[in-house]
């Protein structure tokens, strides 16, 4: 064998090795960054369809992120965990920064998931519930006392002069909020739009009382800490825009979105028609109503904060621009 052949063979092997190393490096450089997204309740709930679809349809990965959903104990807990740096980003209701920021939790809403509201009180008519005032003395299931849907319930009740001591609110966890109403164990629930449909499907006569009819409670929001906003604005923007894209997918065609959601969440297989009703309800009750998708209305937020202060839910009002940022929807 000639020297040239030996040299050429070695060169080819070295070239192949260099190419392999280069491809591996490129693959590593292009690999999606893993990040934790904190949710206030399990991602198996249809309330999180925009997030589940953003992951399933590749919106997060297209933006360069491998999102892992981790469940906290309600929206207030999400804010606290983000505030201390246990996760970079998470979800709650748009009201949440109002509740926690005055207590030293440095978080802002960086994207608002719709112009409607997240919480609707659903009551059984056979328990004498026709209007909000009829909830006095009634048993009401809520997700958790650390969840913002509970504060939305308290806000709606306060608008009618009803305090938390005038009702029997029970924190029962996500699996039981609607089912206890259907079973008749409780009289009403502080429901999300999917649980509203569950109650209506399982109970003959119900009344729906959206909290936004009584005060300006909000839809879900994406939250990030001041530190993460300052240090990782590109990541925040990418997650916000990908999640809003998931919401837009639902709004454009709730029926198509329902089928994609069931594909992503096989536990709902066979319940496609129910899911179509649920996502249509979210579109109407929660997602619609923004002139710019994802934008917080500072006047609405300010009015809401003033209401919370007037009812004693918070000790002091903060400058509204400390509670939100619309920089990441652009």
How would you describe the overall organization of this protein?
It is a single chain. The protein is α/β, with parallel strands linked by helices. 45% of the residues lie in helices and 16% in strands. It has 13 helices and ten strands. The protein has helices at 3-30, 49-56, 59-62, 75-83, 96-101, 148-158, 177-183, 193-202, 226-231, 233-252, 254-264, 272-287, 298-310; strands spanning 33-39, 65-71, 89-93, 107-112, 120-124, 139-142, 168-171, 188-191, 206-210, 220-225. It has a five-stranded mixed sheet with strand order 2-1-3-10-4, with helices on both faces. A five-stranded mixed sheet has the order 7-6-8-5-9, sandwiched between helices. Helix 6 links the parallel strand 6 and strand 7. Helix 2 packs across helix 11 (254-264) and helix 10 (233-252) crosses helix 11. The radius of gyration is 23 Å and the shape is globular. 48% of the residues are buried.
Essential attributes:
330 residues, alpha/beta, 5-stranded mixed beta sheet, 45% helix, 16% strand, disordered N terminus
Largest sheet: 5 strands, mixed
Structural class: alpha/beta
How are the strands of the biggest sheet laid out side by side? 2-1-3-10-4
Fraction in helix = 40-55%
Shape, principal axes of CA atoms: globular
Our estimate of the beta-strand percent is: 15-25%
Distance between the termini: 65 Å
Average pLDDT over all residues: 91
* Number of extended strands: 10
Supply Rg.
23 Å
What's the order of the H and E elements?
Answer: HEHHEHEHEEEHEHEHEEHHHHH
- Low-pLDDT sequence parts: 1-8, 10-29
User: What is the overall number of helices?
Assistant: 13
